[in-house]
Amino acid sequence: MSKLARAFQPNRVVDSSTTGLIFLFWAGTALLLWFASPWKTLPTPHEIWVALGHLWWSGGMGPEMFSTLKLIAHAVLLTTVISLLLSYATIIAFFRPVVAMTSKLRFLGLTGLVFPFTLMTGGGYTLKVALLTFGMTSFFVTSMAQVVIEIPRAEFDHMRVLGSSELRIFWEVVVRGTLDKALDVLRQNLAMGWAMITMVEGISRAEGGVGAMILDQNKHFNLAEVYAILVVILILGLTMDYAMGALTNIVCPHAALGRVQR
Amino acid sequence: MKATAGEVLLDVKDVKLSLGGGKILDGVSFQVIDWIREETTTGQVVSLLGPSGVGKTRLLRIMAGLDAPDAGTVHGKDKAPLEAGSVGVVFQDYPLLRHRTVEDNLQLAGKIGGLDAAAASKRTQELLKTFALTERATFYPAQLSGGQKQRVAIAQQLVVPRQLLLMDEPFSGLDPAALEDVMKLLVDVANLHELNTIVVITHDIRAAMAVSDTLYMLGRDRKPDGTLIPGARIQATYDLVALDLAWRTDVQTLEAFVILEREIKAKFRTL
After folding, report:
1. What's the mean pLDDT when you consider all of chain A?
2. What's the CATH code of the domain at A173?
C-alpha cells in the first residue's frame, strides 16, 4: 500500500512527510475557498491585511491586546487555583456535593449572571475577571474532577503497601500523578476563555480589549477589521495553546510516552 | 536437604468475606512457616493456588492489610495484625508511579520506608544492579516492557526489607521463556536474604509447584449434585519439602513431580 493510500484508510499511521502533505492540501483548499468565495461578507486576505495595519498603527490594537491578555491571565490564574482545589477535594466525601454543584453551573449562561455579578463586584475590570473565572471554572472543575475520580484504586493501594501516609498519597497520586492531565484541561479552558472574551469584554467596554474592539467594529459593519481582530485572536490563542503543549512536555515528559499513535 | 520448621511468619485464621450478599471466603486458615535449611539461609516460596474468580486476590488484599475481613484474623511474625505497609505486595499489573523514573520509584519507596536520601539512593543502586535495571534507571514506566515493569515492581518492594512479599499472579500471560525467567527471579528474590518468604497467588499449577516449598489450594466445595457452594476455603495442602520436591532445580523432570502435578490438576478441576 502506498504512503498516500494509507492516508485514506481508517486507523493507519502516516509518516511526517505524508502528514505535511495532508496539512498543505487542506490549508491550500481553505485559501482557495477564501480567495474564490462568492460571499461578499468574507473580506479578501488583502482587505484583512490592510485593516490589520490600520488597527495596529492607528486603532490602538497593541494596548487593547495587552488589556485582553492581562484579563485572561488574571482569570486563568484564579480559575486554575479554584478549580484544582475543588477537583482535588473530590477525594474527601464531604466536599463532593460542592464539586458536583460547581460542575452543574456550567449550564448557566453568563449573560444572566451579569446583574448579580455587577452588584457583587461593582463592575469594571473586577466584574470581567469574575465572569470569566466563573465561566471557565465550571468547565475546568467538570473535566478535572473526572480525572481525579478516574484514578485507579490500584495506584492508591500501591502507595499504601509501600507504607505511605495518606497525605503523601494525595501528593504523589492525586496532585503529581494527574499534573499532565491538569495542564491539558487548562489548555482546553484557555481556548474556552478566548471564546468567552468577546462577550465578557462587551459587558464593560470602558477598559477596552479586543472583545470590545470587535463589538465596536461590528457596530459600524467594518467586516475587514472584525476579521483582522479574529485573526489576531486566533494567532494569540494558537500561540498560547502551543506554549501550553510545550510546557506539558517539559514539566511532564512522561505524558507523551503514554499517548497511542494511530 | 534437611529442613526443620521454624516460627510462624503468617497466620491466617478462619478468614471470612462476603461481597454484595455473596460469600467469597468462608473460613480460610493456613500458616506460612519459616523453614530452616541446613547450611543455607535462603528463604522460601509459598503458593496459594486456586481457579479464577475463587477469591484469591480478595484474600491477598486482606493479607496485605488493604481490606478487613468480615471475620477471622491475619497475624504476622510478631503476632500483631498485619497492616498496609507491613508486608510487600506486587500487584498483578505492576502499578508504578508513571510520573517518576525507575530510579525515582525505587528511591521514593526508600524514603517512605524511613531511609534517608543517601541510604535510599545507595539501596536503589544496589537493587538496580541486582535486577539488571541499571540501564533503565532513567526510564519512565511507560517505556518499560511487561517483564521490566515486574522487576521494578519487585525491586521497589525490596528497598525496605520486610518479612513477607505477596505476589498476585506473577506468571499470568507469560510465554514459556518469560515464565522460566520469572520462576528463576522468584527463587532468586527468596534467596536474597532480605526477604525470607514470598507468597505467590496464582492459578498456574506447574509454575507454582516448581518454585514453592508449600502449596495451599483455595477452592469451593460442591453439593452432591455437583453445583458449587459459594465461599472458598483451603481445600488441600501440599508440603513439597516433605515430598522432597522443594528447592531443586531439576524438580520438573522428576516422576514424582509429574504425578503430583496430575493429582493437583484433577483436584483443581473440582474447585
Report:
1. 89
2. 1.10.3720.10
Query: The pTM is what?
Result: 0.84
* Adjacent-strand bridge partners of B204: none
Q: Are A93 and A183 in contact (CB under 8 A)?
A: no
Task: Tell if the CB–CB gap between B98 and A252 is shorter than 8 Å.
Answer: no
Interface contact A162-B113, CB threshold 8 A: yes
**CA of A152 to nearest chain B CA: how many angstroms apart?**
10
Shared-domain flag, residues B246 and B120: no
The answer to whether residues A110 and A204 belong to one domain is yes
Q: Are residues B181 and B255 in the same domain?
A: yes
Do A160 and A225 sit in the same domain of this protein? yes
Using alpha carbons, select from B32, B63, B37 the residue that is nearest to residue B47: B32
Is the domain of B38 the same as that of B69?
A: yes
pLDDT category at A121 given cuts 50, 70, 90 is: confident
Q: How many domains does one find in chain B?
A: 2
Cβ of A254 and B99 within 8 Å?
yes
Domain range for B137 is 95-161
Q: Give residue-wise pLDDT tens across range B157-194.
A: 989 888 789 999 888 877 788 788 888 888 887 777 65
Look up the domain containing A2 and give its range: 1-36
Average pLDDT value for residue range B231-252: 87
**String of DSSP letters for B115-168:** --HHHHHHHHHHHHHHTT-GGGTT--GGGS-HHHHHHHHHHHHHSS--SEEEEE
Distance in Å, alpha carbon of A153 to nearest chain B alpha carbon: 10
ipTM at complex level: 0.88
Q: Is residue A262 part of a domain?
A: no
| Residue B264 and residue B176 in one domain | yes
Contact in structure between A139 and A192 (CB atoms under 8 Å): yes
Cβ within 8 Å, pair A257-B142: yes
Our count of domains for chain A comes to 2
Chain A residues with CB-CB distance to B64 below 8 A = 157, 161
CB A153 within 8 A of CB A144: no
Looking at the structure, do residues A29 and A116 belong to the same domain, yes or no? no
Query: For residue range B30-83, what is the model confidence (pLDDT) as tens digits?
Result: 998 887 766 666 678 899 999 888 999 999 999 999 999 999 999 988 888 888
